[in-house]
Amino acid sequence: MPGMLADVRKIAALAWPVLIGQLAIIAFGVIDTAMVGRYSATDLAALGLGSSIYISIYIGLTGILTALQPIAGQLYGARRYDEIGAEVRQALWLAFALMLIGFVLLYHPQPLLQIAHAPEALRERTVSYLQILAFGLPASLAFRVYSSLTNAVGKPRLVMILQVGALLIKVPLNTWFIFGGLGVPALGGPGCALASTGINWLLAVVGMTLLARVEVFTPFAIFSRFCLPEWKRQLELLKLGIPMGLSYLIEVTSYTFMALFIARFGTTTLAGHQIAGNVGAVLYMTPLSIGIASSTLVAQALGGGRIQAAHTIARHGIAMAVTIAFVYGAIVLALRPLIIAGYTPNAQVAMAAMPLVLIVVFYHLFDALQVTTAFVLRAYRVAVVPTVIYAVALWGVGLGGGYLLGFNVSGGVPVALTGARGFWLANMASLAVAGAGLLVYWRVISGRRLLSDRATHGDPAA
Predict the structure, then answer these.
(1) What is the pTM of this model?
(2) pLDDT tens digit string along 86-113?
(3) 3-class secondary structure per residue, 214-265
(4) Domain boundaries in the chain?
């Protein structure tokens, strides 16, 4: 028990700045939803549709760059500081290449919008929203390199401060661009995209400046010299980053395509889905933060050759995330009507959101298990099998099952399991499958490392 409490304190010390920073970022979406919802229902639906597409592209690309975190974390644990600087420089080159891909996808989203069968007015607002965000993507990718490094070396407060600062200017910028004023016309949903793009560039500039000037980064000599892409290091980043990015993409696209399909049930249902999605995203930030913190400590322990410590920290981090998820679920269950009322004054939208938020209560428990375990596995630099688990669970069970239930393909699905509820229930089941699969695989990987370590050091138990 004393050992577990010590690990929980270490994880919490790293997790709380990550949590505050992540909540600040997720608050961007909450603020956008609440403010655009008071502008018009059409703009709120366009925001839900557009943000689903943007998040899929953004998460997929930044997921590749997140490979820097376990790589730098293990190098930091091994005290190989010069190599960290080289890895950061290569990650910045990779970010530039990924930016080119992402910009094209965001600026020309029409093929994705065809899936939703959205009305012309909704499609037009969504395209405007995404095209503005395309110009902020390069900055978002550069900032992800900065945040991955700071998390890897156990300095998440350097990210948190910037994210909280960004939140402070989000509301006034949103108010200005969404509702207009001082010579700027009311832009509605696209206005919040314009505010986010400006903030993203500010974060990127400040982040790169800190990498160059803050003392904690000095041993890495990141900008001490210019270098071209080194294909060996690029391949190492991609070897880990591509499956990581795919796992992020699978996770997010399962939600994105759910939104695209739910859009066929009408604007009101889609708006209710957007509220439930925001609630789930806010809850997700705590296990995500615990996962990032646990991953940092596990990677550093592995880099330092402390295999047993890595196993113990991982186990305690997973248990911590699931326990807190139980508490959060009880709170949301008790306050569900008040939470929904905070998002919208529209009674029909609130009615559509009510059963979906109830499902989120249970959905979150499995979400906490899967995300924390996935981050722990990434600390071991393992990503291919987890990606396969995600594909089977989230695309197969979640999206496939949701389509069968939501649209009552068989004709025999009870009414209570059709529509948006069917998609959410299937997605909940998919997270349960993913969480169980990832947990079993972590036990296999960690067990192998423990046996190998004991054999190397002559442990008779091996």
Answers:
(1) 0.83
(2) 899 999 999 999 999 999 989 988 777 7
(3) CHHHHHHCCCCCCCCCCHHHHHHHHHHHHHHHHHHHHHHHHHHHHHHHHHHH
(4) 2-453
